[in-house]
Specification:
This protein is an alpha+beta fold. α6 runs parallel beside α7. The model has no long low-confidence stretch (mean pLDDT 93). It catalyses: adenosine 3',5'-bisphosphate + H2O = AMP + phosphate.
């Protein structure tokens, strides 16, 4: 078991500080969102904008100040080959703008993600949707909050209703054969498409029950929202039920997964 550095011992304080960080990153992202921004393509063919770099710069500066001895794996830095040695200790996973395609479409479904990994599992997560001005904070188990319209309220996963589960699907994988096959024996009330890590958060706040993902993701895409879901009473597993773990250096590529609410 890893020992938490003193700077990580008070998770509530750290989560609140990083909530402020995510809001500042979100403000910088929104300035670009409302401008005539350019879209470039990275080596992996995924899109990137100036907003990704602007958000990451703010987050990295704050993490260096708050937890100087904890390595940070951040999407844009990793794309440029700057990947620290994470060893066996805690490390951060950062996606400054999850849902860049949604950002480009200007549909509001994009998020700022900051997640802490300890012993291959998410321990703390901050997810902020700047266009929706909605912040999710989660740490441990049973400590999960949503801030919206100036109000903070505790959130938790729900038990599925008698009509079946409400399923969330990625817009680009909603009709995949793998998804249809997975759901074939499950009573389904509805399937709704959504973007970015908001799908995890909607399960965490009890608006949906299941988010199966049979498409490619990286660890920084999922870590923060996974922590929020765990704190709300849910979990993320591989399709065969095996644990969904982190720290798969140097690629940090995820397997397929099932994000689920209360049993």
């Amino acid at each position: 078991m890893s020992t938490l550095p003193a700077s990580l011992s008070d998770l509530a304080t750290l989560a609140n500080e990083l909530g402020k960080t995510a809001r500042r990153a979100g403000a910088a992202i929104m300035e670009i969102y409302h401008s005539d921004f350019a879209v470039e393509t990275k080596d992996d063919k995924s899109p990137v904008t100036a907003a990704d770099a602007a958000g990451e710069k703010i987050i990295l500066a704050d993490l260096l100040r708050l937890t100087p001895d904890v390595p940070v794996v951040a999407e844009e830095s990793a794309a440029e080959g700057r990947i620290p040695d994470i060893g066996n200790g805690p490390f951060w996973l950062v996606d400054p703008l999850d849902g860049t395609k949604e950002f480009i479409k200007r549909n509001g479904e994009f998020t700022v993600n900051i997640g802490l990994i300890v012993d291959q599992r998410p321990l703390l997560g901050v997810v902020y949707a700047p266009a929706l001005d909605t912040l999710y904070l989660g740490w441990g188990v049973g400590h999960c909050w949503r801030e919206k319209d100036g109000l903070r309220e505790e959130i938790a996963c729900r038990i599925p209703g008698p009509d079946g589960v409400v399923v969330l699907a990625s817009r680009s994988h909603a009709t995949s054969e793998a998804l249809q096959d997975y759901l074939k024996d499950t009573p389904v009330a509805s399937v709704t498409n959504a973007g970015s890590s908001l799908k995890f958060c909607r399960v965490a706040e009890g608006d949906a029950d299941l988010y199966p993902r049979f498409g490619p993701t990286c660890e920084w895409d999922t870590a923060a929202a996974h922590a929020v879901l765990l704190a709300a009473g849910g979990d993320v597993v591989q399709p065969d039920g095996a644990p969904f773990l982190y720290g798969k250096a140097p690629t940090f590529l995820n397997s397929f997964f099932i994000a689920r609410g209360a049993a």
